[in-house]
Fold:
Amino acid sequence: MREKMIYIWRKMTQIKILTPFIIFIRYIAGTNFFNTILDFTEVNLFHTSYQETQHFIQCNKQRIKKISEILADEKSRKVYQSIWKYRATHNRKYIKGIVDKHQYFDSELIQLGEQEGFVDCGAYKGDTIKHFLNHLHNKKYNFIVAFEPDDYNFKRLSTYLQKNRYTHTGTTGGYTIIN
Structure:
């Protein structure tokens, strides 16, 4: 279902007359209202993936609990448990406030050193690489490796990295950036 929606969306974005509509949809897509509609439709209309998630949770309850218990700090446990509660119910109250713009580089949990390396699996359009570089605060990095299997997103990633003068040293679907 999601693949079909993505395909249709990409086709629509190529039609110039739809640009105002597309801008509006992008704005709405970032709202809780839109996400609530998506959750409702997944649970009540297109519930195959929701049912699969329920089945997975039931079959792996002990593993999920065990992983939660071995996490190093209370904040990580809370985030992990909140995500599973959301996946089990599709109720956004469980994930409200747990993810923000610093989600991968929370200063309470991550202390970046003088010579960092970064691997981004599912690099999308380079947004997390940008956050990583911003959080270095003028420290150096040894390397960045970025993987993006989706062709459309890979093109966006490539554009971002080329604009910022990073070179592509890998094959299609991945980037290696050496400082």
The chain has a mean pLDDT of 78. The helical segments are 2-13, 19-29, 32-44, 48-59, 61-70, 74-89, 127-135, 151-163. The first strand starts at residue 115 and ends at 121. Residues 74-89 form the longest helix (16 residues).
